[in-house]
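TL;DR need structure tokens for one chain.
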Amino acid sequence: MVHYLVKIIFLLFIIMPNNIHSCLIQGINREVHILNSLPGNTPQLEFHCASGDDELGYHYPAIGSDFNWQFCATSNTLFFCHFWWGDKDSSFDVFNRIESCVWWDGVDFVPVDAVKCLWKVQDDGFYLGYFDEKANKNFYKKYRNW
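>> reply
TL;DR here they are.
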């Protein structure tokens, strides 16, 4: 019975697409979170996110909610989002670097090995954060205004 189970697992591993193999072997699964931290009684936040391979669609998150997705990142994975809030809009890469969420002006914006990229949308701009070893959230203002 055990021999039969080993054969099934081996066959599943062989027929899996290569991108799943690399995630299983190299452990490069990543997450992006979009946190709606806008004030109450304001226009609805709308955003659209995509990559070259994945269309995540348009989203209208409630205040305080967290829209997130997981993916298998490679060295050329890029996700971007376009945000609208009332008459304001902004667009930028929310993920373009395996090691640190985003690479901007030659600098890793958050510490190396950030598995969860947290984007907090506020009325005064966009904040990028990460989970540290103690499970604390640390946010840094990335974009000053809309």
